[in-house]
Amino acid sequence: MNKKAIITGITGQDGPYLADLLLEKGYEVHAIRRRGATDNTTRIKHILDHDNFWLHYGDLTDSSSLVKIVNMVKPDEVYNLGAMSHVRISFDIPEYTGDTGGLGVTRMLEAIRTAGLEKTCKFYQASTSELYGKVVETPQTEATPFWPRSPYGVAKLYAYWMVKNYRESYGMYACNGILFNHESPKRGDDFVTQKIVKAAIAISYGEQDKLTLGNLDAMRDWGHAKDYVKGMYLMLQQDKPVDYVLATGEIHSVKECCEYVFKKLGMPLRWEGNGIEEKGFSGDKLMIDCSEDFYRPAEVQLLHGDSTKAQSELNWEFEHDFYSLMDDMVDTELMKHVEK
Ligand code: NAP
Ligand code: G4F
Predict the structure, then answer these.
(1) Could you give the CA distance from residue 220 to residue 324 in angstroms, rounded to a whole number?
(2) pLDDT at res. 90
(3) What is the pLDDT of residue 231?
(4) Active-site residue, selected from the candidate residues 8, 97, 128, 193
(5) Which residues form ligand 2's pocket by a CB distance below 6 Å?
(6) Which of 98, 122, 212, 253 is least enclosed by beta carbons within 10 angstroms?
């Protein structure tokens, strides 16, 4: 019998990569999508007709839909990737962010329990390095204390503890993957790496004048989503549920990301000014400036992960470093431009 998995967040970045991986492994994949006024299945077009892939309408804010789907599918594994995942926007919609990313996890765990599957169904929670927020030690490991700095981070902290609580209270195989930033050609347009890639290409084609960003000095540990979904899968294939950090251990600033991408497109950058006044030029042309609009009320300045535990206990490996990640994103976006 094929294993059955439910994935929430199938229309986002990670969902499609995880679905590809599980389908390759012979799983029957049931994915939950929200109804949208516009088509939100662009990233899963290639698997919509796959014999082992099913889409169900549901919502993490709607218990009845989750209960119905879990009861019908009776999954072996649930990967809970659904959330309002944009940190800055979580300050604009804090209540909804908590409802989806926090309470949504409890709803999903309860759906599994009420279906009587708590001893057989394994649960993966998409936890995050945003839990570390105002970091108290560097690099961050599974033992580093948390200090979230946004409604998003706080919602995910509640979810993190609910997962632990269901593990301790009901003996559920439930674990948190504490994932550092991971990107890909499927990354949403309003996250910084994709925003930089798309703007730099549009500027190089004369379709956009300049790029406006927020905190250029923020540092992130950026990996490739394709590598990270393999870690999610591995976390559910062990004898015991354990929480793991996934990270590359390599950090770069937003400014370095701009420098690499613009240089790759033949527009090397030089910088003038500081803070909000800092500007990036190529030759004499203004390419990048900054605006308060893209800062957060509380910034997370540095995230730097240590994934030694996942590497040694799960044999998790990542193929992509920062440069090959950015190359993949730029090359894919360039190809789309050529095909337009
Ligand atoms: P993403 O691209 O923003 O995708 C989020 C997904 O959640 C989308 O499919 C979205 O559906 C769905 N969703 C939002 N609200 C929902 C609701 N109320 N009910 C059901 N589904 C809902 O995020 P991602 O980058 O793939 O990340 C996947 C998960 O990992 C998220 O939980 C994120 O917080 C977490 N995470 C991400 C990173 C990272 O660097 N990418 C790092 C750590 C943790 P729509 O298309 O309908 O909006
Ligand atoms: O790409 P970002 O929006 O990602 P952020 O805030 O680190 O969050 C992502 O990673 C988390 C894991 O650590 C996930 F949990 C979360 O769901 C999401 O996937 O911003 C990266 C950095 C930030 O410091 C931000 O202040 O880039 C800085 N930045 C500078 N200018 C900008 C911009 N970010 C965005 N989105 N847009 C800008 O114009």
Answers:
(1) 16
(2) 98
(3) 99
(4) 128
(5) 85, 87-88, 128-130, 180-181, 190-192, 195, 213-215, 218, 220, 254, 294, 296, 299-300, 303
(6) 212
Q: Sign of torsion, CA 175 180 185 187?
A: positive
Q: What is the phi/psi pair of residue 72, to 5°?
A: -75, -45
128 is catalytic: yes
* Contact assessment for residue 266 and residue 202, using Cβ atoms and an 8 Å cutoff: no
What confidence score (pLDDT) does residue 144 get? 98
Query: pLDDT at position 339, please?
Result: 86
Model pLDDT for residues 155-198, shown as the tens digit of each residue = 999 999 999 999 999 999 999 999 999 999 999 999 999 999 99
Confidence of residue 200 (pLDDT cuts 50, 70, 90): very high
Give alpha helix (H) positions in the chain: 14-24, 63-73, 87-90, 94-98, 104-114, 151-170, 192-204, 225-235, 254-264, 308-313, 322-339
Nearest to 181 by CA among 124, 122, 227: 227
Q: How confident is the model at residue 321 (pLDDT cuts 50, 70, 90)?
A: very high
Beta bridge partners of 123: 78, 174
Nearest CA to 325 out of 39, 13, 85 is that of 13
Q: For residue 57, which of 74, 46, 41 has the smallest C-alpha distance?
A: 41
Instruction: Choose the catalytic residue: 79, 152, 173, 228.
Output: 152
Residue 253 CA: which ligand is closest?
2
Nearest to 63 by CA among 112, 97, 20, 4: 112
Residue 338 predicted with pLDDT over 90: no
pLDDT of amino acid 340 = 78
- The CA-atom distances, in angstroms, between 173 and each of 61, 81, 118, 139, 324 are 23, 17, 8, 28, 35
User: Average of pLDDT values for 232-244?
Assistant: 98
272 is catalytic: no
Pairing of strands 174-179, 279-282: unpaired
| pLDDT at residue 329, as a whole number | 98
Cα 151 to chain centroid distance, Å, stands at: 16
Per-position b or e across 79-109, b if 16+ CB within 10 A of its CB: bbbbbbbbbbbbeeebeebbbbbbbbbbbbb
